TrEMBL record:
Protein origin, superkingdom: Bacteria
Catalytic activity: tRNA(Phe) + L-phenylalanine + ATP = L-phenylalanyl-tRNA(Phe) + AMP + diphosphate + H(+)
Domain Aminoacyl-transfer RNA synthetases class-II family profile: 109-318
One GO CC term, this protein: cytoplasm
NCBIfam families the record matches: pheS
GO molecular function: ATP binding; magnesium ion binding; phenylalanine-tRNA ligase activity; tRNA binding
Protein name, as recorded: Phenylalanine--tRNA ligase alpha subunit
Compartment(s): Cytoplasm
Main location: cytoplasm
E.C. numbers: 6.1.1.20
Pfam families: Phe_tRNA-synt_N (PF02912), tRNA-synt_2d (PF01409)
Biological source species: Roseimicrobium gellanilyticum
A GO BP entry: phenylalanyl-tRNA aminoacylation
Length: 338
């Protein structure tokens, strides 16, 4: 029996050498080590081995099984290695890899998030309103009379039912005051606005604004000035100069335009008009009182300031972008610069 086991091992190892695919290898395993395999059949003969030889035969049996098992495993791993080598043939693994390109936030998203962050630190909450609005919220309640040029069909997109695409985010001032439960009201509202503008390097028919409103019993022009000066210096850097120029808006009195003078790399420092603002006109509070049916916004008791600015313009100034259309074209050559 010992001799038979030696033969099985010698033959087995020799056969293994010649095996070149995994199916044949599996057949080999079944033929030798399987339930009816050669080794198993021989080991059944252990019964008839004289007791004094059992130990030696048993040891040999184990030795051969171990040798064949190891042989199969070795063969399997060399077959797999050959397969792997075949599949990468012709690929130069020493070439540098292609780096995965990482995305980035759109410059408009960045400036909006930045502005929200700064203003929230100052206690302004985020507010929202619909982009399809009533004429009342967009104009009448904001003290803008029916014959105001902004209400012209040439300037505003009207829907057949008389509603319109809001021409500014100032509508959110009215919406917020209509639903407010108590004073103070201190909100900002970033969002889209629509105008029937001729499209060129500085105009689109959809653009982005950021509105602000603060109403309480003691809000002053000094609060307005301090808040916006801080905001622009935080956004554009501490050297930024801010100036308030008297202006007219129907919904504020007095009203101002804000210019900032800032240093942008590669540009000559100059004054740039950046936002509108003012003290909320009592007529606006009156409209809100009428709509609410109470006196929470009694123009005799409350004061407030409001401001509005174009976010596209802010982004353009900050990054030296000369054509507003770049902001919506999704051209990777433009966007990858940010
Ligand atoms: N709504 C104005 C516009 O679109 C901007 C504006 C000016 C908003 C003055 C205000 C403000 O809140 O007080 O041109």
């Amino acid at each position: 029996m010992l001799a038979e086991l030696d033969t099985i091992r010698t033959e087995g190892i020799a056969t293994l050498e010649g095996i070149s695919d995994e199916t044949s290898l599996e057949n080999f395993r079944v033929n030798y080590l399987g339930k009816k395999g050669r080794l198993t059949t021989v080991s059944a003969g252990m019964r008839d081995v004289p007791p004094d030889q059992k130990a030696a035969v048993g040891a040999k049996l184990n030795e051969v099984r171990t040798a064949l098992t190891a042989g199969i495993e070795q063969r399997l791993s060399s077959l797999q290695a050959a397969k792997d080598a075949e599949s990468v043939k012709g690929i130069d693994v020493t070439l540098p890899g292609r780096p995965a390109r990482s995305g980035a936030l759109h410059p408009l998203t960045r400036i909006r998030d930045r502005a929200i962050q700064t203003l929230r630190r100052m206690g302004f909450a985020l507010a929202d309103g619909p982009e399809i609005e009533t004429e009342w919220h967009c104009f009448d309640a904001l003290n803008t009379p029916a014959d105001h040029p902004a209400r012209n069909e040439k300037d505003t997109f009207y829907l057949p039912d008389g509603r319109l695409l809001r021409t500014h985010t100032s509508t959110v001032q009215i919406r917020t005051m209509e639903s407010a439960k108590a004073l103070p009201v201190r909100i900002i509202a970033p969002g889209a606005a629509y105008r029937r503008d001729e499209i060129d390097a500085t105009h689109l028919s959809v653009f982005n604004q950021l509105e602000g409103l603060y109403v309480a019993t003691d809000v002053s022009l000094a609060d307005l000035k301090g808040t916006l000066e801080y905001f622009f210096q935080d956004t554009f850097g501490p050297q930024t100069q801010v100036r308030f120029r008297p202006h007219f808006f129907p919904f504020t009195e007095p009203s101002f335009e804000i210019d900032i003078k800032l240093e942008v790399k590669g540009q000559e420092a100059r004054w740039i008009e950046i936002a509108g603002c003012g003290m909320v006109d009592p007529a606006v509070f009156e409209a809100v009182c009428k709509s609410r049916g109470d006196k929470l916004f009694d123009p005799e008791k409350v004061t407030g300031f409001a401001f509005g600015m174009g976010l596209d313009r802010l982004a353009m100034i900050l990054h030296g972008i000369t054509d507003i259309r770049h902001l919506i074209e999704n051209d990777a050559r433009f966007l990858s610069q940010f």
